[in-house]
Structure formats: structure tokens, C-alpha cells
Write a structure and sequence with these properties.
Radius of gyration: 25 Å
GO molecular function: DNA binding; ribosomal large subunit binding; single-stranded RNA binding
Helix content: 40-55%
Number of strands: 7
Protein name: Heat shock protein 15
Order of helices and strands: EHHEEEEEHEHH
Largest sheet: 5 strands, antiparallel
CATH class of one domain: Alpha Beta
Structural class: alpha+beta
Distance between the termini: 90 Å
Strand order of the largest sheet: 3-2-5-6-7
Number of helices: 5
Keywords: DNA-binding, RNA-binding, Stress response
CATH superfamily of one domain: RNA-binding S4 domain
CATH architecture of one domain: Roll
Pfam family, one: S4
Family: Belongs to the HSP15 family.
């Protein structure tokens, strides 16, 4: 019978498997695609799918708008629940502050949008304004 590994008994494992076990990605193939797409870095260098990770390594992982810098605290070959997965890594304080800053900037940027779509009358007014200004500019060019 093969010997079962305890989550902390391993010395190293493939990065795609660790990212999947730590619940950064839903499947290993998605983790592999992210690694190949340059979304995972170690010491500001892109990593390969076969990269072996160890406890104490610092990784930068980009998912959508968010870019997290995490330190590996434990290794696990099995994918557990979210509370267990969160024990496998610790996000750095700089990373948390940077993500909160970017999130607040995105929220502020979204506040500049109008509350509603232009109505038919609003669109007519906009088109009339554009036509009047295009005609006035063409007279000045001659």
C-alpha cells in the first residue's frame, strides 16, 4: 500500500498543483494556463508549470484586476476547503494595501459614470450639439 503524505511532510511540489490546492484556480489546467500566460511570478521572473515550490517562497499571482503577493506557509497535494486552503499561504501587508488602494481607485472611477443611459431626447440633443460644433469648426478651417 502506498504511503500517504501528510500536508506538511512534503519538501516541494509542482507550482500548478499548489495553486490548485490553495484555491487560487478552480482546476489545474486553469492554473497551468495562467502560469503559461505569465500571471505567476517568483522574484519578478515568470515561472514554468513544472517549477517546484517550497515553504517560504514568495509568489506574485495575478487574477483579473487583483495582483497578490503571497508567502507559501505549507504544501498540500489535496484540495481542501477554503479555510484549509487559506492556511497554505499568507498574503504580504504591502500586497493587501496595494489591492485595497486599487479597489478604491476602481470604485472612484466608476462614480464618474452617468446614472442612466441617455433617453431618445438626450441622444437628439447630443447629435444636434455635435452637428453644430462640426459645422462651426469647418467654417474656421477655410
Amino acid at each position: 500500500m502506498p504511503k500517504q503524505h501528510e500536508p506538511d511532510s512534503m519538501e516541494s511540489m509542482r507550482i500548478d498543483k499548489w495553486l490548485w490546492a490553495a484555491r487560487f484556480f478552480k482546476t489545474r489546467s486553469i492554473a497551468k494556463a495562467a502560469i503559461e500566460g505569465g500571471k505567476v511570478h517568483h522574484h519578478n521572473d515568470r515561472v514554468k508549470v513544472s517549477k517546484e515550490v517550497r515553504i517560504g517562497m514568495e509568489l506574485t499571482i495575478q487574477q483579473g484586476f487583483e495582483k497578490k503577493t503571497v508567502v507559501i506557509k505549507a504544501l498540500s497535494a489535496v484540495r481542501g476547503g477554503a479555510p484549509i486552503a487559506q492556511q497554505l499561504y499568507e498574503e504580504t501587508q504591502e500586497s493587501i494595501a496595494r489591492r485595497e488602494l486599487h479597489a478604491s481607485q476602481r470604485k472612484m472611477h466608476n462614480l464618474a459614470r452617468p446614472d442612466h443611459r441617455p433617453s431618445k431626447k438626450d441622444r437628439r440633443d447630443i447629435n444636434r450639439f455635435k452637428q453644430e460644433n462640426v459645422q462651426s469648426w469647418s467654417y474656421h478651417d477655410e
